[in-house]
Specification:
single chain; alpha/beta; nine-stranded mixed sheet; four-stranded mixed sheet
Length: 301
């Protein structure tokens, strides 16, 4: 049985990936290994993650009307995602990401936003009722900031829980912060948002408190192989994750956020929801690619 609806506002890209022994230095050309293309984009990845893990998902996005956009919509529809709110721009190409992945599973990514940058508040107004009837609104920062801020304000006005995955990190306006229920930065994003280098649990706690003091009730800092730090209801919790051999970390954060949205939409207690999200993310890093790495509900032990 599927849970209440999760609305995701975000990006859709086509990922072009090269596997290499190591990431090239500036100005350096290296010979890589296998090349493959995947559907990607943080918004689309999170939508697929939520759908595979049992969520009823509506995805709000904008693609080009090119072959990449059409293919992305086809893939999302096959995942059982409601694509009725995806707009297609006839003048702007779809988003593209160029990704290099090294032997340790670390990656380097450059994104050409394309139509993602043309998803505007006016587009959100057309599907406002969908947000207002959701149980969870999940957002990232690969679409314009004013679009994300407007989406969050629509949800907050109806007392709908909002999750903000602040990636790629940038300075966040007060209006967005006050309309964010849960924020989920990784270590580097937490540092960029707070000015505190996050390299251990102690510094993660400091950064979490700074974010909380900005008006965000719940802060979750993801710590890669070390799991996550949760600050919720004035209490810290350290959530550990299974030790696995990482092959590709490209979509780990997206899987975490999609899983978190599903668990919370099912009214799972916060600490258990974060644990569920860590488990899903730990599976994804053992596989290559973005959406191809996302696990299904039955794989979560």
């Amino acid at each position: 049985m599927r849970n209440s609806s999760i609305v995701i506002v975000g990006s859709s890209n086509t990922d072009m990936v090269i596997k290499a022994a190591r990431l090239p230095a500036p100005g350096e050309t290296i010979l890589g290994g296998n090349f493959f293309m995947n559907a990607g984009g943080k918004g689309a990845n999170q939508a697929v993650a939520a759908a595979r893990l049992g969520g009823k998902v509506l995805f709000i996005a904008k693609t080009g009307s090119d072959i990449f956009g059409k293919q992305a919509i086809l893939i999302l529809r096959k995942e059982g995602i409601d694509v009725s709110a995806i707009l297609q721009d006839k003048k702007i190409p779809s988003g593209i990401a160029l990704i290099t992945v090294d032997d340790k599973g670390e990656n380097s990514i450059v994104v050409a936003s394309g139509a993602n940058a043309a998803l505007l508040p006016a587009d959100i107004k057309k599907v406002k009722l969908s947000i207002e009837s959701a149980s969870i609104l999940l957002m990232q920062l690969e679409t314009p900031l004013n679009t994300i801020s407007y989406s969050a304000s629509v949800a907050t006005a109806k007392k709908i829980k909002t999750i903000l995955n602040p990636a790629p990190a940038c300075e966040l306006p007060d209006e967005l912060l006050k309309n964010t229920s849960i924020i989920t930065p990784n270590e580097k994003e937490a540092e960029l948002l707070t000015g505190i280098p996050v390299n251990n649990i102690s510094s993660a706690k400091q950064a979490a408190l700074v974010l909380h003091q900005k008006g965000i009730p719940t802060v979750i800092i993801t710590l890669g192989a070390k799991g996550a730090l949760l600050y919720h209801e004035n209490k810290f919790s350290e959530i550990n994750t299974a030790k696995v051999k990482a092959v590709d970390t490209t979509a780990a954060g997206d899987v975490f956020n999609g899983a978190l949205a599903v668990a919370l939409a099912e009214n799972t207690p916060m600490q258990n929801a974060v644990n569920f999200a860590c488990k899903a993310a730990s599976i994804s890093v053992t596989r290559l690619g973005a959406q191809t790495s996302i696990p299904f509900r039955k794989e979560i032990k």
